[in-house]
Specification:
The chain has 969 residues and is an alpha+beta fold. Among the domains are: 224 residues, Sandwich (Immunoglobulin-like); 129 residues, Zincin-like fold. The chain contains 29 helices and 31 strands. Strands 1, 2, 4, 5, 8, 11, 13 and 14 form an 8-stranded mixed sheet that branches. β9 and β10 form a beta hairpin. α4 packs across α6, α23 packs across α25 and α24 packs parallel to α26. The longest helix is centred in the C-terminal third of the chain and has 34 residues. The chain is globular and about 90 Å long. It starts with 11 loop residues before the first helix and ends with a helix. About 6% of the residues have low confidence. The structure holds 2-acetamido-2-deoxy-beta-D-glucopyranose (NAG) (3 copies). Its EC number is 3.4.11.-. It comes from Esox lucius. Homodimer.
Amino acid sequence: MAKGFYVSKSLGLVGLVTGAAALVTIVALSVVYDREKTRNTKSPADDGVTATMAVSISTTQSVPKDPWDHYRLPDALSPVSYNITLWPRLQVNQDGLYIFTGQSAVVFECKKPTDLILIHSNKLNLTLINGRHARLTGLGGATPPTIKDSWLQVETEFLVIQLNGKLSAGKIYMLFTEFKGELADDLEGFYRSEYTEDGVLKVVATSQMQPTYARKAFPCFDEPAMKAVFHITLFHDRGTVALSNGRDLETINTTKDGFEVTMTRFEPTERMSTYLLAFIVSDFDHVTGSVENIDSNCLQVRIWARRKAVSEGQGDYALNVTGPMLRFYEKYYNTSYPLSKSDQIALPDFNAGAMENWGLITYRETALLFDSEISSVGNKERVTTVVAHELAHMWFGNLVTLRWWNDLWLNEGFASYVEYLGADYAEPTWNIKEQIILYDVHKVFAVDALASSHPLSRKEEEVNRPAEISEMFNTISYSKGAAVLRMLSEFLTEPVFARGLSSYLNKFAFNNTVYTDLWDHLQKAVISTPEIRLPDTVHNIMNRWVLQMGFPVVTIDTTNGKITQKHFLLDPDSVVERPSPYNYTWFVPIKWMKGGVEQEQHWLLQRAEHHLPMRTSGSEWLLVNLKMSGYYRVNYNLENWERLLNQLNTDHLVIPVINRAQILDDAFNLARAKIVNTTLALRTTRYLYQERDYIPWESAIRNLNYYILMFDRGPGYGALQAYLKKQITPLFEHFRTITANWTKVPVGHNDQYNQINAISFACMTGVEACRVLTRSWFREWMRNPHRNPIHPNLKSTVYCNAIAAGGVEEWDFAWMMLKNATVATEAAKLRGALACTKAPWLLNRYLEYSLDPAQIRKQDATATISNVASNVVGMPLAWAFVRARWSYIFSEYGGGSFSFSNLINAVTRRFSTEFELKQLKQFKEDNAHVGSGSGTLALEQAIEKTSANIRWVAENQQHIINWFTSESR
Ligand SMILES: *[C@@H]1O[C@H](CO)[C@@H](O)[C@H](O)[C@H]1NC(C)=O
Ligand SMILES: *[C@@H]1O[C@H](CO)[C@@H](O)[C@H](O)[C@H]1NC(C)=O
Ligand SMILES: *[C@@H]1O[C@H](CO)[C@@H](O)[C@H](O)[C@H]1NC(C)=O
C-alpha cells in the first residue's frame, strides 16, 4: 500500500508549517512510543496484546480459552481454490441500503485431523443452509463429517464450524457459503464510492482487502500465507464494466432473480493471497496500451478512471510511464511480469494512497491522474513514484509474499526503496533518487532517534489483531525499511543485490517467506562474487539494523583517526529502556572522501577504533557517509567542522549535493541532541546565499522551520527574518533570471521545486519584489477569472501570499473560485490559501465556515482549522475556536479519527510559554468529561511538546537571536 498522507512538495512554506516540522513532532512521537512500552511491560501474559503504536487498544483482556478466541488461524487446513460469485447492487434496496450478495465455495486440504473449521468472516450475513452457516462436502471420495454447530465469532472475525467427527489428513473438502453484505462507504472490503458526473450521481463498487478486509467480502482463510487460486465471477448492471485480478473470459447478458444483468467471468488467478484480490464494478472508461515483456509476450496495460477524466487525457501520463517501468522491473528482478494484464484504476474515494492488488491496482485519483494544464510538478511526481511503488510490488510482495504481517517492513521498505529506481528509469532527467534523502531518510531519522522507537522487525507472535496489523503500516516500516535496504544495496553493489533478489524471487515464486530468506539469497550472491568482501555475513550485518531500533552517530576525530559510534538520541536526557541484543552497536559501512577524493570503503565494527587514513593535515577536510548511503549521522572534531564550513563558504560545489543537505541536517540534529552547539548548526546555513540546489535548501528550510515557529511571535523575529531574507534574495533573483522575469518554468525538475521554495521564503521574509509579483499575478487573475495566469507549480504559494497581502476582495474572490472549482487539487490549493489572510475577522469567518458542511465539506473541516492555526495570526483564533467548540467538534468530527489529533497538533505547534502550557492543562481538565479518544493522547503529547519547547526556548533564544542579529547586519 502506498502511504495515504502525502505532504505536498508544492505547498511551500504554508505546507512546511503544517507538514514538515519534524523536530516538533518528536516529543509527540515519544509519548506514543512510551505507551507502547508501558503496555509491553504491564501485560506480558496477555495473548496478543503487545507492542503497538496504537492509540486505542485496550489492555484488559482475559486469557483466551478456545481456538476461536485466538486471532490466528490454526494450521490444520489449507485452502486450494475458491469459486466466488459476487453481485453488488448500485441502487439502494427497500431498506435504504446498498448491498451485495454472493456465494463462495472454498476447496481446502486437511493437513491435520480436526473437528473444527475456522474461517474468517466479518460483517457478512450468512444464509442458513439446513440450519447451518455453511455446507461441507468431501471431494475425491472424502466423506465429510456432519456439522454439529456453527456460529459467527464477532471479536475474532471467524465463522466457527464444529463437526461431529474429524476431517482426515490428506483429504480434500469443499465448504460452500451464501451471504449478503452491505456495500457501505467505509473504504474497507467490498465497498462503494460515489461521485457526480454531469449532475448525475454515480456509484462504484470497489474493494480494499489489505490487510484484513477480504473477510468482509466473502468468507476466507484471510492470512497472507493461505495462498490459493481464485475463480471469480461478477454479476453487474447492464452497461457497467466489471474488473478483477485476471482477464475477463466471458461477458454475457443474462437475468438473475428477475433482474437484467451482465455476468463477467474472469480467468483463474495465480496462486495468491487474499489481501491482493480486487473486485470493481463501474461505468469507468479507460485508455489502453500494450507492452512487450522480456519473454516477447504482449501485455495489455490499461488505465481506468471516471469517463470525464479519461476523455480529458488525465490517464495518459500514467499509461506512458507504466510500460517503461514494467520493463525496468522485469530486467531488475530478471523475472517476467507474472500476469497476463495490468490494470490501474483511479477511485474517487480511497483510503490509502494506492493498493497493489495483483493485476488491478487501485489508486486515489491524485496518485494516478495527471492533468498537464492544472497539475503541478509535485502532482506529477506523486503519480510517478506511486505507480513505481505499486508496480514494484507485483513481484516483491505479490509473487513472493511474506508469511506474516510482522515482516511488513521488508515488503513496504523494499517497494519504498525501488520506487526511486523505477521512477528514475521512467523520468531519467529528474534526479529523483536523491530525494530519498529528504522523503525517507531524514523523515525517519526524526522518529527513529527517540528512546522509545522500535526495531524494524517484530516477532510474529507480537502481531495478531487487525488493529495491530494495521499499525505495522508506519514510517519505520516504510522509510527505515527503504533506508536500510538502500544501504544494503550500496554496500553489496546493485548488480549483486539484484542477483540475490532474482534468485529469491525465482525460488519462492507463488509462495511465502520470512525476511531471512532474502538474506540467504543475497549471501549466495555475495559468495559467488569474489570482488565483494564483507566483514561478516549479510545476516550478521543486517541483524544489527533490523533487530535493534535506532541508528548510530559516527564521530570522526581527524587529528588521530579515531572513529566511534554511539546510539543517536535526539533528547539527550531520554532513557532507553528497550534492551538490544547488540548493545546498540552496528556494523557501519563508511564511504568517505578526503581532500575531495573518494577513498576505499571502511567498516566500523566496534564501538571505537582507529583508522589512521582518517587523519588529516593542514586545511584538508574529511567527509563521511558519501551520498548518505549509510543509515547514520556523522559528527567530527571541531577542526574538521570548521574546514567543511570553510569549503561550503568558498566553493560549496566540491561537496556532493546530498552531503550538503546532510551537513545541514546532521548539524541541526546534533545541536538538538546537545552534541554540538547551536551556533555551529546555524553557521551551516551561512553559505546558502550561494546555494542553488533544491535538496540542501529544502533540508535547511525544514530545520529552520522550528526556529521560525518558536520565534515568529517574539521580539527576536525581526533579526531572524532579516537574516533569512539576506540568504534567500539571491535565490529569488536567480529564478527571476532563469525564468526570463517569471515568464517561463525552470527546466530542471528539482529547480521547479526550488523555485517554489524561493518564492515562498522570499515573500515570507519580506522581499518586496516577491510581494509585488504574487500580488500582480493574482490581480490579473481577478480581472479575468477565466484565464488563470499562475503556473500550477506556483499556485499554492502565490494564492497564499496574495491573500496574505490582500484584503476582503482577494479573499472573496478565492472563495468564489473554490466554490466553482471542479478539480480536487485546485480546490485544495484554494482552501489552504484562504487561511493565509492576516485579517482576524476573515480568519474567524473562515473558522465558522469550517464547521458548516454547506460551506466546507466535512472531510476538509479539521484540515481547514489546522490551516488557520498554521498562520501566526490565525493560531490564537483557532485555539480559541477549538476551545469554544470542543464538545461540538468532538461529537461531530472527533472520536478515533486521525485528523482529529492532527488538529490538536496543528493548533498547539507554536506553544512555547508557561501561559500556553497552563491553558492547555486547563483545557484538558475542563474537557475530561467530554471524553476524547485519540484527542486525549494528542493533548498529552501537546503538553509534553509545549514543555520541551519552553525548555528549548529558554536555553537557546538569546544566543540564537544574537547570532541572527550579528549575521543580518
Ligand atoms: C469453479 O469454477 C471453475 C470454472 O468455472 C470450474 O471449472 C470448477 O469446477 C469450479 N469448482 C468448484 C469446486 O465448484
Ligand atoms: C444483516 O443482518 C442484520 C441483523 O439482522 C441487519 O441489521 C443488517 O442490515 C443485515 N445486513 C444486510 C446487508 O442486509
Ligand atoms: C448487454 O446489454 C448491454 C445494454 O443493454 C449492451 O450494451 C451490450 O452490448 C450487451 N452485451 C452483450 C454481450 O450482449
